[in-house]
């Protein structure tokens, strides 16, 4: 039996390729009585197509703590949203690696489909995306109580305390870094209710199929970074990686969600973007529309 290699650090895991893992993956799927495996080319964790109907996701030791989060989210969400999510078929461990076997969603990612979609198609999908996110945020299930962080207010305070250093590490220009403390101080995030969050609701993690000429949402996946927190934290990824600065599209999505953006909403979204675990404004400024002025206030208006 071929074993999975040890992966004690992030750097060691980054050096492993999906192809190099294939012998161990094939050994695992063979022991489960499953068919051929083909690696997917994208994703932060190794993911493999298993036959036509299944997907195998691997969690190396350094990421094993994310497996219970994804399993719990998938088990709670299945059949509860207006967009399909994968059903869990098996969960286990081999050589210190966790694995999750799940149903395969149909279609292509919205990221791949996006350049081929007409403006009309995009506008039709926008409110459906909002409805799906609203359904996720409205779920109440005690099983979700295990999701991090245990205290949302404490999490936000911790992110706030290290925000300047975080953005300095990403290479953000000091002209922007100098604005961060005052901007965050000026935004009242309040004490919002805690809801289940995807945290990476983006084109990469939404699937679409084509019914004739019309695209339809066919799946939402990748729940290992899920959390519990303020609903507007999810609109960070929505504004950055779904609408991408297209405020007309964002308004349509938010209408489907059941809310209407205003200046305060935009400022809160930018504050959460600055505090987000994976925030990288150095990159955002390269791929999103430039603000009218070199100020964070202008950024909030341009992107949300």
UniProtKB/TrEMBL annotation:
Any single Pfam family the record assigns to this protein: APH
Residue stretches making up the Aminoglycoside phosphotransferase domain: 37-264
GO molecular function: transferase activity
Statement: the UniProt record of this protein carries the keyword Protein biosynthesis: no
Keyword terms, alphabetized: Transferase
InterPro entries per UniProt: AGP_Transferase, Aminoglycoside_PTrfase, Hygromycin-B_Kinase, Kinase-like_dom_sf
Protein name in UniProt: Aminoglycoside phosphotransferase
Keyword Ribonucleoprotein applies: no
Organism for this UniProt entry: Amycolatopsis regifaucium
């Amino acid at each position: 039996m071929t074993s999975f290699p040890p992966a004690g650090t992030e750097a060691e895991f980054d050096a492993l390729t999906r192809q190099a893992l294939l012998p161990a993956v094939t050994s695992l799927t063979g022991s489960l009585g499953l068919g051929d495996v083909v690696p997917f080319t994208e994703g932060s964790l190794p993911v493999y197509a298993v036959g036509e109907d299944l997907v195998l996701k691997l969690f190396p030791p350094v990421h094993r703590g994310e497996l219970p989060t994804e399993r719990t989210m998938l088990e709670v969400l299945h059949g509860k949203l207006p967009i399909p999510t994968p059903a869990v078929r098996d969960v286990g461990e081999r050589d210190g690696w966790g694995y999750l076997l799940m149903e395969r969603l149909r279609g292509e990612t919205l990221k791949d489909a996006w350049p081929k979609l007409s403006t009309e198609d995009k506008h039709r999908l926008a409110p459906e995306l909002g409805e799906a996110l609203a359904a996720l945020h409205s779920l109440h299930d005690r099983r979700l109580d295990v999701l991090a962080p245990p205290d949302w207010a404490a999490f936000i305070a911790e992110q706030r305390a290290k925000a300047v250093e975080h953005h300095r590490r990403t290479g953000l220009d000091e002209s922007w870094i100098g604005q961060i403390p005052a901007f965050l101080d000026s935004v009242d995030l309040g004490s919002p209710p805690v809801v289940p969050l995807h945290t990476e609701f983006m084109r990469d993690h939404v699937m679409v199929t084509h019914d004739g000429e019309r695209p339809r949402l066919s799946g939402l996946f990748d729940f290992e970074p899920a959390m519990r927190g303020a609903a507007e934290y999810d609109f960070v990824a929505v504004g950055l990686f779904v609408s991408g600065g297209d405020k007309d599209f964002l308004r349509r999505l938010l209408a489907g969600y059941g809310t209407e953006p205003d200046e305060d909403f935009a400022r809160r979204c930018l504050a959460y973007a600055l505090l987000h675990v994976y925030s990288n404004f150095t990159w955002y400024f390269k791929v999103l529309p430039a603000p009218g002025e070199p100020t964070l206030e202008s950024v909030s208006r341009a992107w949300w």
